[in-house]
Structure formats: C-alpha cells, structure tokens
Amino acid sequence: MDAPYAIAEPLEPGAVRLLARNPSPFTYFGTQTYLVGESELVAIDPGPDLPQHVDAILDALDGRPLAAIACTHTHRDHSPASRALKEATGAPIIGCAPLALESIGPRADASFDKDYAPDRILADGETIDFDNGKRLLAVATPGHTSNHLCFAYGDALFTGDHVMGWSTTVVVPPDGDMAAYMKSLDVLRQRGDRIYYPAHGPAVTKPAQLVRGMIGHRRQRERQILRLVAERPRDIPDIVSSAYPGLDQRLVPAAGGSVYAHLLDLQTRGLVEAGEGEKWMKTAESG
C-alpha cells in the first residue's frame, strides 16, 4: 500500500493526521503527527527531524496559529521536529519531561532525543488550554518510557506509543518498566474514551476491548515465562527463542528487552530469581 506521506488527512472535526516518512519494524509506516483544534491548533508528536515532514505540518496549519507543540515522550521518532517547528512558528514545546537514557545493550527501536528542551512540563491532569475554550489533558502513562504521556481531547485519546492497534508496545529496561506499563494500561481501562489515535498505525475504534486484550496478552506472556524458567534455568536468549518462535531477527533485541522487563517485575514480586550465568529460575517460594 502507498502510505499517504506529507498529506493532511482529516479524521474528525478538529483533528488532522500527517504521516512522517520514517517507516521501520517499530514505526509501521511512520510516525503520525496530529493537529487538533480549529482556529488555533496544537501539534501532538511532531515526529523525527525530517524537513519535509515539518514543511507538511506548516502547510497544514494554513496560516492558523500554533498554540503548542505537545510531545508524548522523547524517542527520536517523536520529538526532534519540535525544535524546527518551534523555530518556524514560535509555539512553545509543552508535554513530557526531558529524558535521555540508553538501554542495556544495543537498542532496536528509536533511541532518546537528547536535545529535547520543553518550555513547560505537564504533570498528570494538567492541561494545554487553547482555541477559545478547547483543552488538551495530560494523562500520565509511564511504562514504555518513564516520561510517557497520553493526551485527551474531548473523548479522543492520543496514545503515543503506549497503545498501538498494529503492534504491542516495546518495554525495554532500564527506563521501560513492565509494572508501570501494566498500571498505565489499567488507568486507560478505567477511562471511557471513544477512540484512540496512536503515533503509529490505525485508529483504535474499540479501545476498551483492545486494552483488555493487551492486559490479557501481557499476563499470558508472564505465565509463559514462568513456565519456561520452571522447567530449567534459562537465559534471556533461550526464553526468547522458546517464547517467540519464528520471530523476525530484527525484533529479537526488542523481544529480549520485553522478556527482561517481565523478569524484573517477577523478581520484584518474589516469583523468579537470577542465578549463575545470567540464567533465571523460579523461586522456591513461588512453587
């Protein structure tokens, strides 16, 4: 399929989507920037540092003022274009806190944007007020990264990388935290949002159903890991090869990070322990 790059796609009144040309196994067809509002706009997740994508955002503004540039988190496929967009429009960068960490070992998905510099950091429940009474509400959703935010606009939720309809979310330590991610999924489960607009992939039109399924999937993966390490002590590559048969080799590092995140959560709960040779096993207390 031909991805609609650099084209402003109306989604519903007051919401437009623009797709950046940065496809990959982790971004699907690319990062989606959203413009919300009517006479005054907010740009959500301006995307990677691609001049043609910034130009497409500016064209989509069509002379209307940009009230803010809102970033869900600081991976390099989400926030770097905030600087060029701020320079072009004068709009402040508002949203997640700055964060620049490297994961243990090589990273398969996008690394952190070390130059991200927000003018204002939003805490959970704080808002961006714009366009004569419109409001963008920050919903703290740590897990994929510790600084991740979703943004609610009416009954629509812009979910960044926290929930995506086309793929599960990468959770890679040390900053990715599985326990925090599960709690954040539960936060969304308790909300009544009509639709999700993720940063990658199609809109989620049955969000409550999807979130319930995601929680179930993660619990199933947890039980699978527990069964594997109960059979014999295993290192992470052994667990990945057993739990993800036939996995695309490009995704193996991400799967290893996810398994490690699960193991750290299980260790905190006293269900597994690390042994010699970087091998993991069930604790005697867990049965």
From TrEMBL:
Residues 30-200 form the Metallo-beta-lactamase domain. This is MBL fold metallo-hydrolase. It comes from Sphingomonas cremea. The lineage of its organism: Bacteria, Pseudomonadati, Pseudomonadota, Alphaproteobacteria, Sphingomonadales.
